[in-house]
Amino acid sequence: MSEGLHTQEVSRDTRLLPKCAAIVVRDLQLLVRRPGQMLQILGFFVVVTVLFPLGYSPELGKLRLIAPGVLWVGALLASLLALEGLFRDDAEDGTLEQWLLCGQPLAALLLAKTAVHWLLTGLPLTVLAPLLAVTLGVSIEAAPGILLALGLGTLALSLIGSIAAGLTLGLRRGGVLLSLLSLPLAVPVLIFGARATELVIQGDSPTAALYLLASLVVLAITLAPLAAAAAVRIGLE
Amino acid sequence: MGWAWFHRFGSPPHLYRLAGTLTPWFAWPAAILIVGALYLGLFVAPPDYQQGDGFRIIYVHAPSAWLAVMIYAVMAIAAGVGLIWRMKVAHAVAVSCAGVGAWFTAVSLVTGMLWGKPMWGTYWVWDPRLTAQLVLLFLFLGYMGLRSGIEDLGRADRASAVLALVGVINLPIIRYSVEWWNSIHQAPSVMKMDQPSMPMEMLAPLLMMLLGFSLYFGAVLLVRVRAEILRRERSAAWIREVLS
Question: Tell me, what's the ipTM?
Answer without folding.
Answer: 0.85
